[in-house]
Amino acid sequence: MAALDGLPPLRDVIARHGLDAKKSLGQNFLLDLNLTQKVARTAGPLDGCTVFEVGPGPGGLTRAILALGAEKVIAVERDPRCLPALAEIGAHYPGRLEVIEGDALKTDFEAMANGRPVKIIANLPYNVGTQLLVNWLTPRQWPPFWQSLTLMFQKEVGQRIVAEADDNHYGRLGVLCGWRTTAHMAFDIPPQAFTPPPKVTSTVVHLEPRPAPLDCDIQKLERVTHAAFGQRRKMLRQSLKPLGGEALLERAGIDPQRRAETLEVEEFVRLANLL
Ligand code: SAM
After folding, report:
1. Which residue numbers belong to the known binding site?
2. Residue 194: which H helix or E strand, with range?
3. What is the CB-side half-sphere exposure of residue 260 using CA atoms within 13 A?
4. What is the pLDDT of residues 75-131, one digit of tens each?
5. What positions does the domain Ribosomal RNA adenine methylase transferase N-terminal occupy (predicted)?
6. Structural fold of domain 218-274
7. Any idea where the domains of the chain sit in the sequence?
8. Under 8 Å between Cβ of 190 and 234
9. Ligand 1 pocket residues where CB is under 6 Å
10. Distance between CA 57 and CA 86 in Å, rounded?
């Protein structure tokens, strides 16, 4: 892709700006520009889109998103050391890259969208990835401000996101994602593709919002899934005792002897709506 955007190889950028990876910031950089393009392409056509990126680092994924035609990228990066490298990308694509130095967990992405449709694409820092996803799944308004989320996670987290009933990885995250989105794992990325390599395989997950998820109060849904999966090996009549146990399950028409991981999303919603 050096030929595509004419910018220097990422290895040179990292060396020139002294961007030694910091573990505390979850820094595992993707330097293969074919791979960063593959991640960006998973978000679908980017022509004319506004893209929010979290953690651009030295900018490999940012470059792919811009090269694929995004009209504007707004990137939130916590590490100030990365800003000069990102400024070079901004100079190459005038007016199309805005970098905000800050903590994505404290960023109000919904306000930042300001009514325009956005796609979110990120190679997320592992320590904050799941929390960011939960934040994006629970915005103030639904349908949400984002058209799609294309996110890289540790594979095990990706499996939890896309899991459905009767899957070992199914839990609170799978219910939340299944309630509000359709999600699939697009492809895996091996540790050696990163610098430095993480201990585990990564995976790219693509999520699109359900325009009208089943009507349900999210706090109630979380109370049910928290109780049910908190004791996932137990029968629901036991794990849901604090919420009404057998009586609640009977009202919902659910066999009290079943276990949490056998319940479809609609059944969790039915329970939540009876609380
Ligand atoms: N996007 C780059 C890539 O694909 O090579 C870097 C990805 S690296 C896994 C994660 C990036 O997120 C790092 O640049 C790190 O500094 C940044 N980061 C870590 N915690 C953050 C936070 N709370 N808010 C914003 N950025 C954060």
Report:
1. 28, 30, 55, 77, 103, 123
2. strand 194-195
3. 24
4. 999 999 999 999 999 999 999 999 999 999 999 999 999 989 899 999 998 889 999
5. 35-211
6. Helicase, Ruva Protein; domain 3 (1.10.8)
7. 2-209, 218-274
8. no
9. 25-30, 54-57, 60-61, 76-79, 82, 103-105, 123, 125, 128
10. 8
DSSP 116-160: S-EEEEEE--TTTHHHHHHHHHS-SSSS-SEEEEEEEEEHHHHHH
Question: Cβ distance 143 to 211 under 8 Å?
Answer: yes
Name which of 193, 165, 174, 186 is nearest 267 in CA terms. 165
ipTM: 0.99
| Per-residue tokens: 237 | 């009549």
Average pLDDT over residues 128-139: 96
CA of 75 to the centre of ligand 1 (A): 10
Type of residue numbered 41: R
CATH class, domain 2-209, is alpha beta
Length, in residues, of the chain? 275
* pTM to 2 decimal places: 0.95
Q: Which residue's C-alpha comes closest to atom 11 of ligand 1? A: 55
- What 3-state DSSP class applies to 47? strand
**Cα 83 to ligand 1 centroid, rounded to whole Å:** 12
**76 is written with which tokens?**
């939130």
Q: Which of 107, 123, 189, 201 to mutate to test the pocket of ligand 1 (most atoms within 8 A of CB)?
A: 123
